[in-house]
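Q: What residues go here?
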């Protein structure tokens, strides 16, 4: 099982490039970054974990730009989004940006994607909130056309464009792995239809729920003529307990991402080293 980190990187925490270099030297497999392009000054959507929305949600670095910087300073560590709010980016631009990330990292990109929980944020970007699952499917089908076809064209409910050339193409073929976020049954099926794996949150997961979800994915993969052995289940968060990690691995988890709190640089570096001692 792979072990990665997901820091809430801001302009006030350990510089993300230094963090990536340090994580690679310690032996972490991957570094993923979250995304909130903006946070409305006022909103009614409840924070999923309860209580007030943490301040770092308002201060995140742009993950695409930050991951490109990390890729340029490292050699082995995989880079990923957990999660990118893909509906907040025009799909033609997202296709080029993500393909560029895969190129500059020499094929180390993993795309963890979701529709988000902050309805008011989605409204700023014109997200069709009541149909956001369908919209995300449309976006990724369009993006894949850009990645896989020499001359791309697409016509869907939410995305449509004429024949055009979209470059660069990703290094990974046919595409960088796409992991679909969510705990609901529909997230597992979406992963089988147009993704390559699943990225559930630890907060709402148990080894039993993961095993059940994986069984559904295997059935769906077979339904669509796909190879179930390629399924990637990346757990978003976990306690620093080897016993619990082993239970999730036995349930089908292939990667665990451990959170790093947003702290001043030295405190964040110290926490990274303590984490490495406990989980690697």
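A:
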């Amino acid at each position: 099982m792979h072990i990665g980190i997901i820091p809430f990187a801001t302009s006030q925490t350990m510089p993300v490039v230094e963090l990536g270099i340090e994580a690679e030297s310690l032996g972490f497999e991957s570094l993923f970054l979250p995304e909130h392009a903006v946070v409305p000054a006022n909103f009614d959507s409840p924070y999923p974990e309860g209580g007030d929305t943490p301040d770092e949600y308002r201060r995140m670095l742009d993950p695409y730009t930050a991951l490109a910087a990390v890729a340029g300073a490292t050699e082995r560590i995989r880079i990923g989004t957990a999660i990118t709010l893909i509906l907040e980016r025009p799909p033609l631009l997202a296709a080029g940006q993500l393909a560029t990330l895969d190129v500059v990292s020499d094929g180390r990109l993993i795309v963890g994607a979701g529709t988000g929980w902050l309805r008011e944020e989605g409204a700023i970007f014109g997200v069709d909130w009541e149909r956001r699952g369908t919209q995300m499917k449309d976006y990724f089908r369009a993006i894949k056309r850009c990645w896989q076809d020499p001359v791309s064209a697409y016509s869907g409910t939410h995305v449509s464009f004429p024949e055009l050339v979209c470059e660069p193409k990703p290094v990974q073929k046919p595409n960088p792995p796409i992991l679909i976020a969510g705990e609901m049954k529909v997230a597992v099926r979406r992963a089988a239809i147009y993704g390559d794996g699943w990225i559930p949150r630890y907060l709402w997961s148990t080894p039993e729920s993961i095993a059940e979800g994986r069984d559904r994915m295997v059935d769906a993969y077979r339904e669509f003529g796909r190879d179930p052995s390629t399924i990637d289940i990346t757990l978003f968060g976990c306690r620093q307990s080897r016993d619990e990690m082993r239970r999730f691995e036995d349930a089908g988890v292939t990667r665990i991402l451990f959170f790093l709190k947003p702290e001043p640089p030295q405190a964040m570096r110290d926490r990274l080293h303590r984490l490495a001692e406990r989980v690697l």
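A: Context that may help when evaluating the design: The first strand starts at residue 2 and ends at 7. Residues 132-148 form the longest helix (17 residues).
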